[in-house]
Structure formats: structure tokens, C-alpha cells
Design goal:
Radius of gyration: 23 Å
Helix content: 25-40%
Shape: globular
Structural class: alpha+beta
Length: 431
């Protein structure tokens, strides 16, 4: 259920095979959450994770089963109300261009409630819920041959990719925690940095970083310069960065109640590899939910609340049998550091790489990310992962929003990530 309305339900059928048919409403926008229940292909995602409640086999419903047995009635399953905001989910799904592989995640940083989690490409789970097993198998084969689509995968939680410069939020946390840097510290900002073996680390050629041979921590974060962060890794060593990454959720198991694939920060790498890892490359990989949790931590005084999809579970007799309460997942950093980083995240929106996401009247704090993938399109154009993660409003955060786009040319990704962040912020605050 979303906003009191069913998005997955069993309805009577007269097809001659079974009494009920599983039906999905607004299927494309919810497919990566609900998954499907299929006679031929089993079940996935929430249909699988919530199966005991939905079928009535949960121990929470033993009284209902006993009552049904003695009265001769049919035992019913429970209803599960999700935390999703139906209007935000609809807008998130519809605003993603149909020709992109992209995800939008919106959460409440104070509670961890997931308000929207939408991805494209998507599919219609009704194609897999048909009673004909041969038709379901054929439909499954066709769907999984679609570019960028797997019916088994929720891209928001199952597909870690290079996060690019959004990882620099964690870098400034490590820098400030070290006590060796503050926001006004003047850092060397060479256009190229020798990091040992391998090619040198460089700043983005289309940016303005190279206009300043030295720059403050505020400037290099706002303009997303690479070489000072590589030098910072060489100065501080790998451990402060890996410690921060772990506190922010990298490498951690998480259930929402869907199982989230852990994001990764590498271990046992050379200095040049670590220097690339701290700019969101090498073996640093993150899911969209993970980078949303990074924004949640900064928005919530350094505490990441447990991300959650289940608002409440209601028995057939309308008893509330489960109602998860907000709880902390991790203390990622101190309130003082979080608030300082939150102030720094105003810079990219005001005068840096996130200016195209600005919304008049809304104090958005954000960080962009562009990660090289090493892949090219059919025309030989380099492809990137494009990101933006942040929260609003700055003085009293109500939402954390993350945009992740896979395998696009630089201009397409940068412009689209900013546009989607702007539209999603407008959707929240015009609601």
C-alpha cells in the first residue's frame, strides 16, 4: 500500500485456472520496489521479503489463522503500508528521461523513511504475474534482454557504481577530523599531481580549478578539484578515509527490509590507487542509497538514520502488528563536523558545479560527481556516471535527494543530474 492505496494486490479472476490474480497498479514506477510474484519465476524484492506478512504465514498472524480455522473462513494476509510518498514517487519516475539509466532517491534524514525510490528503465510486473507459466517465461526472457534492465535488480540498492566527486563529502570530513585542515587552509592546487606509479592525477580540464595554483578547502570542494584531495591522501594516509567511509556505511550490511548490496572503499591498494579512490574512482563503488545516506548524515548532525520502506503492517482485523520506529544506523561524524560540511555544501550550489540545480527560495546543499567509466558510446564519445546528492533546506533539512545516472556523455550527465535535482527539489517544496 502507498498512501492507503494498493500498488500490489490479489483480485478475483474467472480465468478458470485460479481464484485470484496478482495485480500491480502503476506498475512501471513501483516495479523495482514491489518486484513480482510469479508462478513460473518465483518472487523478488518486497513481494519476496514481505511474503510471510502478505500471505498470512507470519507468526504475528497466528491468532488470525486460528480464528479462520475455527470459523471456517479463509485466512487472509496482512497489508503493508510503505513509507513512499505516492506523488513524489510518481514525479520522480516521470521526470527521468526514458532513454537513460538513472535513479532518484528521496529520504527524510530525520527518520530514515524512504519517500521515493525510482529507476529507469523499468518494466510491468503484470507481465510476469500471468497464470500461464509459458507466457511468464517468455515475458521474462524478453524483459531481461532489454538494455540496462534486470527484473532481479533494484538499481538504487543493488548496483554500486563509481560515485565520482560526491565522495569528496567524505574527504572533507576526514580532513576536518584530522585537525590538520580547516575550511580556510590554503592548499597546493596543481593541474597535475604525481601519485607514484600510474598516470598522474589531474583536475577536470573543463572546470576552473586550474585558475588557482593554491586554493582553500572551501574552493576545492566547491569547484571539485582533484589534485588537492589526492595530495591529502598522500599526507594523511589511507586509514582516516577508510574509517570515515565505514562510518558512513561503506562495507556495511543494510536491510530496508530489502537487502542492500554493500558499497565499497578499497583495501590494500597502492598510493596512486588510493589517490584515485578518494575522488570516487578505482575500487570505490557506491549505490544511490549509499550516497543518499551520506547526505542524510550531513543533514542530521552526523547521524545516519536507518533507511526504511515499511511504515506499518496491518492485520486483516485492522490491528497494527508492526510499526517500525526511527532508529540510528550509524554515527558518521560529530555534529560540529557535519554542520561545517553542511555549510560547505552550499558552495557548489551558489557558485560551483551544482549551480544548475538552484531553486529560488530553497536553500539546497549539494555535491556533484562525475566518474569516468572507461566506456564509449557507438560514436566513440567517452561515457561517465553523473551524480548529485544533497539536502534541503539547509537550516532545517526535510529531505535528502540523490540523483545517479549511468553511462552518459559528460554534458548530458552533468546537465541532466542538475535538472533532475532541481525538479525533485521543486516537487518536494511545491507539494
Amino acid at each position: 500500500m502507498v498512501d492507503g492505496k494498493p500498488i500490489a494486490e490479489s483480485v478475483p479472476t474467472d480465468d478458470g485456472q485460479f481464484t485470484y490474480q496478482r495485480r500491480y497498479n502503476d506498475p512501471q514506477q513501483y516495479a523495482h520496489l514491489t518486484g513480482y510474484y510469479s508462478l513460473a519465476n518465483g518472487s523478488t524484492h518486497l513481494e519476496s521479503e514481505l511474503n510471510d506478512w502478505l500471505t498470512g504465514s507470519s507468526s504475528d498472524l497466528v491468532f488470525d489463522r486460528l480464528t479462520a480455522m475455527f470459523t471456517g473462513q479463509t485466512a487472509e494476509g496482512a497489508s503493508v503500508e510503505l513509507t513512499i510518498d505516492g506523488e513524489l514517487q510518481k514525479q520522480a519516475y516521470e521526470m527521468i528521461p526514458n532513454d537513460l539509466e538513472a535513479t532518484i532517491v528521496v529520504t527524510d534524514p530525520k527518520t530514515g523513511d524512504i519517500l521515493a525510490m525510482a529507476s529507469k528503465p523499468s518494466y510491468d510486473p503484470n507481465d510476469l504475474a500471468v497464470h500461464s507459466t509459458s507466457a511468464a517465461a517468455e515475458n521474462m526472457k524478453e524483459l531481461n534482454s532489454s538494455k540496462g534492465l534486470s527484473t532481479y535488480v533494484n538499481p538504487a540498492i543493488d548496483t554500486p557504481i563509481w560515485p565520482g566527486s560526491t565522495f569528496k563529502i567524505l574527504n572533507v570530513v576526514a580532513a576536518l577530523e584530522s585537525g590538520e585542515y580547516d575550511r580556510t587552509t590554503e592548499l597546493q592546487n596543481p593541474s597535475s599531481l604525481d601519485v607514484g606509479s600510474g598516470p598522474p592525477l589531474t583536475n577536470f580540464s573543463a572546470g576552473i580549478c586550474d585558475r588557482r595554483p593554491t586554493a582553500t578547502l572551501d574552493f576545492i570542494f566547491t569547484q571539485s578539484c582533484n589534485t588537492p584531495f589526492g595530495a591529502m591522501l598522500l599526507d594523511l594516509g589511507e586509514k582516516p578515509f577508510s574509517d570515515v567511509a565505514e562510518r558512513f556505511g561503506f562495507g556495511q550490511q543494510l536491510e530496508i527490509p530489502l537487502s542492500v548490496r554493500p558499497s565499497t572503499f578499497p583495501e590494500n591498494r597502492t598510493k596512486d590507487q588510493f589517490a584515485r579512490a578518494v575522488i570516487g574512482q578505482d575500487d570505490t563503488k557506491a549505490t544511490p542509497l549509499e550516497m543518499n545516506m551520506v547526505a542524510m548524515a550531513i543533514a542530521n548532525d552526523g547521524v545516519i538514520m536507518q533507511p526504511n520502506l515499511v511504515k506499518k503492517v496491518v492485520a486483516p482485523d485492522l490491528r497494527v502488528i508492526e510499526e517500525p520506529k526511527p532508529k540510528a544506523f550509524s554515527t558518521a561524524t560529530t555534529p560540529e563536523i557535519a554542520n561545517e560540511v553542511a555549510d560547505m555544501m552550499a558552495g557548489p550550489v551558489a557558485s560551483g558545479t551544482a549551480m544548475n540545480a538552484r531553486v529560488p527560495g530553497v536553500d539546497l546543499r549539494a555535491k556533484t560527481g562525475t566518474a569516468q567509466t572507461g566506456r564509449e558510446d557507438a560514436n566513440g564519445t567517452a561515457l561517465f556516471n553523473s551524480w548529485m546528492t544533497g539536502f534541503a533546506p539547509g537550516d532545517d533539512p526535510q529531505v535528502a535527494i540523490t540523483i545517479a545516472i549511468h553511462d552518459v556523455p559528460y554534458n548530458t550527465g552533468h546537465n541532466t543530474a542538475g535538472s533532475l535535482m532541481k525538479k525533485m527539489t521543486e516537487a518536494v517544496f511545491n507539494k
